[in-house]
Amino acid sequence: MANMYYEKDCDLGKLDGKKIAIIGYGSQGHAHALNLKESGCDVCVGLRSGSKNWAAAEEAGLQVKTVAEAAKWGDVVMMLINDEVQAKVYKEDVAPNLESGNALMFAHGFNIHFKQIVPPADVDVLMIAPKGPGHTVRSLYVGGKGVPCLLAVEQNATGKAVDIGLAYAAGIGGARGGVMETTFQDETETDLFGEQAVLCGGVIELMKLGFETLVEAGYAPENAYFECIHEMKLIIDLINKGGIAMCNYSISDTAEYGEYVSGTRVLPYEQTKANMRAVLKDIQDGVFAGKWIAENQTGRTFLNAKRAQMARHPMEVVGAELRKNMLWGDDADPDTAST
Questions:
Q1: Structural domain of 218
Q2: Could you give phi then psi for residue 119, rounded to 5 degrees?
Q3: Per-residue pLDDT tens over the stretch 14-44
């Protein structure tokens, strides 16, 4: 069993007197910065000059500096910008300003595990990785709850990296949900696999194909959207709270019976597992990382084309129209998506 830590195991006081620089103010960045500030920590946000997020961070009551200034100011530097730009920003603005004994932190292990960032030996290198989107990290914290986190230590130069990591997890609310100890390698590989095979690649493709199948059979697109997309959240909320048992308790016996007789028809067990193993092997061997790095070096043509294609898909067009008339139709704030 992995080591698990909770609020009783974390001493937020380990961050007393330490300045925390949050590099980036996107989904994770805004959540970490605001949660830490409201937990009483000394926080600033590091952004590039002219960033569109500069004013938003200041309006939220946060002090903002350039990335280089923030890295120089901070005793703890948390990298929360996109994976694909982290190495460049680190080399240009963060590395020259790190001091011996600083803590360099990440919320995902990609750049450390695949050696895109190689920190000096005299700094702590650790990870606090919330197991949920940043907007959920923020909304659950505000509601008195927290998203569980992973803790990993790659370098423990000061001997205090675990204490700093646990304190940081407590500061963003993660210790309320639990903090699991892991490694950079395990976090990176399982995170990439989960995103590709299940959470994003798998689930979204499953919803899309279900929607298309019903529409092609002559059913109303609106009906197909409700059945194959809208209700996904309702099912996942039940599983999140009480596992498959709570889901199956809450759905009809007809639905549960259908789960058993048709699930493996849609996803044939052996073939699906073989496909998943192939995805995992590409991640473990660095094949996926190489493709993603190359994609960003060559103009992101594949990613941009797929984004445009998805935006035109009927399930997105129909869904946008339906959501306009729902109670939350005028609420475009991702921070409230889990409430």
A1: 200-267+299-336
A2: -70, 160
A3: 999 999 999 999 999 999 999 999 999 999 9
Determine whether the annotation assigns residue 49 to a binding site. no
pTM, 2 dp: 0.91
57-107 pLDDT, tens digit per residue, is: 999 999 999 999 999 999 999 999 999 999 999 999 999 999 999 999 999
Query: pLDDT tens, 161-191?
Result: 999 999 999 999 999 999 999 999 999 999 9
Residue 70 lies in a domain: yes
The yes-or-no answer on residue 230 being catalytic is: no
Residue 285 counted as an annotated binding residue? no
Query: Is 26 labeled as ligand-binding?
Result: yes
Is 168 marked as binding a ligand? no
Long-range (24+ apart) CB contacts under 8 A made by 52-57 are 53/25, 53/26, 56/25, 56/30, 57/25, 57/30, 57/33
Looking at 30, 108, 113, 135, which residue is catalytic? 108
Residues 255 and 140 in one domain: no
Domain count, the chain: 2
